[in-house]
Design brief:
Layout (H helix, E strand, L loop, with lengths): L1 H21 L2 H9 L20 H53 L6 H9 L3 E5 L2 E4 H17 L10 H27 L6 H13 L7 H12 L3 H21 L1 H15 L4 H8 L25 H7 L11 E2 L3 E10 L4 E9 L3 H9 L4 E3 L4
Antiparallel strand pairs: 1-2, 1-6, 3-4, 4-5
Helix pairs in contact: 4-5, 5-6, 6-9, 6-13, 7-9
Length: about 375
């Protein structure tokens, strides 16, 4: 029995030895360190816990931010560089645009839409009247409606025989823009102005007489097709016209005095026909006592719209006050009316042309032109 046990023990030792040889030494050492019979090492004693205060939080935040600044500063430098580069590109583009427009305006005398829009943004001068610059845009505004009409309605291309016609248009447009500058100076000196209400009232008068189409669409189409204008462009032109008329009426004191004297005599009972034969400047109607010689309707093109508007406010036998008809002052008297057709008489007092007053002021405000066609 004892021999048998020894034999079993030897066999078990051989198996243990074989297992030990198969297991790596590092694993054996790790297993020995985990021996549950080994006593625990001495416990570690924790140090004092730091107190959290506002100062310690601020210090910790500064440590974190200082570490991040090395990433922030390159971004700041890049942003500055982007601004500088962008600004340089914009400045170069603006300089290029100014050079292009200057060549187009002062060397090539272009009037295309792009150039026109550029002059509406940048105040390129075309002339100087005294100490006041005349904007190139004012000249192009006048020129382009001449050109549009002849190209769209008369099919002119301004080449060959029509080339001189374009030169004439250029000169006329420049003269018109300079004259408008002089008119504004005269208006300022004489405290004359035109309100938006006055412009709208004039348009209403003309529209009521069906001279601008029977609806807004027709009116807009006519402006665009004939002149290349919008409604605002038409109002701008009309405002300049009204301003010229009001300046003349203010400055032409002699003819205004004649009209006032005639109105005073009419109010005193003087016969209209007799007075018209004496004082009217209309050589056609004057011998007939001012009789128009034709029936007048609201759409009659032979009578100024301002006069027509006043005629249809009067009853038979009534006489108007002084009417500013633009080129003349008018006094009218209704003979018969049925609400749609009127017969009437008038006396006319021709006003001086605005050029008379512009010629006088030119001596005070000489012209310096920047283009030569």
């Amino acid at each position: 029995m004892i021999k048998k046990l020894r034999k079993i023990r030897k066999k078990a030792n051989r198996h243990v030895q074989m297992v030990r040889e198969m297991v790596p030494s590092s694993v054996v050492e790790k297993a020995n360190s985990l021996n549950p019979l080994t006593p625990d090492p001495e416990p570690t004693v924790a140090g004092p816990v730091p107190q959290i205060t506002t100062e310690t939080i601020a210090h910790h935040r500064e440590q974190v931010l200082s570490g991040a600044r090395k990433y922030i500063y390159p971004l700041q430098h890049s942003k500055h560089k982007i601004i500088v580069i962008t600004g340089s590109i914009v400045a170069a583009a603006i300089a290029g645009l100014v050079i292009y427009c200057s060549i187009g305006l002062y060397r090539l005398y272009q009037y295309n839409t792009f150039i026109y829009r550029a002059t509406q943004v940048a105040p390129f001068p075309i002339a100087k009247v005294g100490g006041t610059f005349v904007d190139y845009e004012n000249y192009l505004f006048e020129l382009r409606h001449y050109v549009h009409y002849y190209q769209s309605q008369l099919q002119r291309d301004f080449s060959g025989e029509d080339k001189q016609q374009l030169v004439n248009f250029r000169k006329q447009a420049l003269q018109d823009s300079i004259n408008n500058a002089y008119i504004k100076i005269l208006a300022g000196k004489n405290h004359v102005g035109v309100s938006g209400k006055e412009v709208n009232e004039r348009i209403t008068e003309v529209r009521d007489q069906n001279r601008l189409g029977d609806n807004n669409k027709v009116f807009t189409d006519v402006l665009h097709d004939y002149w290349g204008w919008s409604i605002n462009d038409f109002k701008r032109s009309l405002k300049a016209q009204i301003l010229s008329e009001k300046v003349v009426a203010k400055l032409d004191t002699a003819d205004t005095a004649r009209a006032n004297a005639a109105l005073t005599q009419l109010k005193a009972g003087t016969d209209f026909q007799t007075l018209a034969k004496q004082v009217s400047d209309d050589v056609v109607s004057k011998p007939n006592g001012g009789d128009y010689g034709f029936s007048i309707t609201k759409s009659n093109p032979n009578v100024p719209p301002q006069v027509v508007a006043q005629l249809f406010k009067l009853k038979a036998g009534q006489t108007s006050g002084i009417i500013d008809a633009g080129q003349a002052l008018e006094i009218v008297q209704v003979v018969t009316t049925d609400g749609t057709t009127i017969t009437a008489r008038h006396m006319t007092f021709n006003l001086q042309n605005i050029s008379v007053y512009i010629k006088v002021i030119k001596a005070q405000y000489p012209i310096h032109e920047y283009v030569h066609f």
